[in-house]
Amino acid sequence: VQHRPLFGRHILVTAGPTHEPIDPVRYIANRSSGKQGFAIAEAAAAAGARVTLVAGPVTLATPPGVDRIDVESAREMADAVAAALPADAAVMVAAVADWRARDYAADKIKKDGGQLAPLPLAENPDILATLAARPDRPRLVVGFAAETSDVVAHAMAKRVRKGADWIVANDVSGDVMGGADNTVHLIRADGVENWPTLSKADVARRLIEHIGEELAND
Ligand code: C5P
């Protein structure tokens, strides 16, 4: 049992960016590689959990023993998360686009002389906040917060605002996105743990250890 502390648990993980279509050939995206989320899914499966990994567009291999659902946009990701419930814990690592193009153009938008086509935006649903507010929410809802300044203060506010139990905060002012290492702070209701710089695999294993301990407290 001790080396499979998540045996019998269902862990839901989101990872990667989202792509928000503008027209058949263009989209809005961001620099998330999906590496940290995939590492968390892998660590959860290695700890014995059943794992559902909802992945945006990334070029990563599916970790062993993980059920992967590929999505493109934030709204598809929101639907896939809802469909994966119930879960014992959710770790929302995806870098969900905050905005999408308000209107999808079925035909490729053309250059028009010197006139720029307008690109009105609409706000995407907050998948983490929506999940945390559901009556059937996972017992433990963990968010990530990528910040470029005042990392811990912003992330503490985010934990409360979004209704997450824990936030893993990281400073992305360097080359974290796409890189192999991560320096994070684990923010819970009762305080902050500052972790040393670790590989994304080690951040994942350490987080999964904490999740196992938390879920064992029932
Ligand atoms: O507000 P911010 O995007 O920094 O919050 C990051 C956290 O919220 C991450 O856990 C991310 O997966 C989640 N999130 C989400 N849906 C959004 C935006 C962020 O689930 N639309």
TrEMBL record:
Positions with a binding annotation for CTP: D98, K108, P125, D126, I127, L128, F144, K158, K162
Pathway linked to the protein: Cofactor biosynthesis; coenzyme A biosynthesis; CoA from (R)-pantothenate: step 2/5; Cofactor biosynthesis; coenzyme A biosynthesis; CoA from (R)-pantothenate: step 3/5
Gene Ontology BP terms: coenzyme A biosynthetic process; pantothenate catabolic process
EC numbers, comma separated: 4.1.1.36, 6.3.2.5
Co-factor(s): FMN; Mg(2+)
Top-level lineage group: Bacteria
UniProt cofactor note: Binds 1 FMN per subunit.
Domain DNA/pantothenate metabolism flavoprotein C-terminal: 7-212
A molecular-function term among this protein's GO annotations: metal ion binding
Region (Phosphopantothenate--cysteine ligase): 11-218
Keywords of this entry: Decarboxylase, Flavoprotein, FMN, Ligase, Lyase, Magnesium, Metal-binding, Multifunctional enzyme
Catalysed reactions listed for this entry: N-[(R)-4-phosphopantothenoyl]-L-cysteine + H(+) = (R)-4'-phosphopantetheine + CO2; (R)-4'-phosphopantothenate + L-cysteine + CTP = N-[(R)-4-phosphopantothenoyl]-L-cysteine + CMP + diphosphate + H(+)
GO CC terms: phosphopantothenoylcysteine decarboxylase complex
Record's function text: Catalyzes two sequential steps in the biosynthesis of coenzyme A. In the first step cysteine is conjugated to 4'-phosphopantothenate to form 4-phosphopantothenoylcysteine. In the second step the latter compound is decarboxylated to form 4'-phosphopantotheine.
Family affiliation: In the N-terminal section; belongs to the HFCD (homo-oligomeric flavin containing Cys decarboxylase) superfamily.
Protein's name according to its UniProt entry: Coenzyme A biosynthesis bifunctional protein CoaBC
Organism per entry: Croceibacterium xixiisoli
Residues represented out of the complete protein: 201 to 418 of 418
